[in-house]
Write a sequence for this structure.
């Protein structure tokens, strides 16, 4: 019998979280910044792979945190300089993409589509949100701890015997690399 990835249901919920930020000392002008928090839970400990798709290219990063049954994925929309720039960074899983967009800086909620599926499971890509205006899609791949191997310095990898169980672009997860980029030409990088 060929090996298979562990499939366990994942519970999902999403919430927009406002944060009041003060800038420009000594006046301390206040403004509101928004972030998206996605809470996930499953019955088995998991390790996570953060995924950012940008114009056909895929950036991925293995989270170095300990395996857990409950976790949150956070997407930040952080202004470069609130008072003088329309630049905003989309932050997720250690990735940062800068765009110049006043609307996204001031309130990303109308421009960001939360794309959580009604049902999700470990061992499959779980879409979190997308920003169609910039062709950015953020997702997570939750792998059961039993499908992974612990390495030194909080590193880990997919068990090599399971590399054939994931889509071709994810077979690299079994090689021990902690971050990567698939099809960089598509992103113009």
């Amino acid at each position: 019998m060929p090996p298979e990835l562990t499939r366990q249901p994942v519970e999902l919920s999403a919430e927009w979280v406002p944060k009041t930020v003060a800038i420009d000392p000594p006046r301390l002008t206040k403004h509101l910044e928004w972030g998206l928090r996605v809470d996930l839970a499953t019955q088995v400990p998991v390790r996570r792979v953060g995924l950012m798709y940008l114009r056909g290219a895929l950036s991925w990063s293995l989270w170095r945190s300990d395996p857990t049954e409950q976790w949150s994925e956070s997407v930040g929309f952080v202004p470069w300089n609130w008072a003088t720039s329309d630049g905003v960074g989309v932050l997720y899983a250690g990735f940062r993409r800068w765009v110049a967009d006043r609307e996204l800086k001031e309130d990303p909620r109308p421009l960001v589509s939360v794309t959580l599926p009604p049902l999700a499971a470990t061992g499959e890509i779980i879409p979190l949100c997308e920003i169609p205006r910039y062709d950015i899609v953020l997702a997570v791949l939750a792998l059961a701890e039993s499908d992974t191997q612990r390495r030194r310095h909080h590193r880990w990898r997919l068990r090599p015997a399971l590399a054939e169980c994931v889509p071709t672009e994810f077979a690299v997860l079994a090689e021990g690399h902690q971050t990567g980029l698939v099809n960089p030409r598509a992103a113009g990088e």
Notes: The first strand starts at residue 9 and ends at 23.
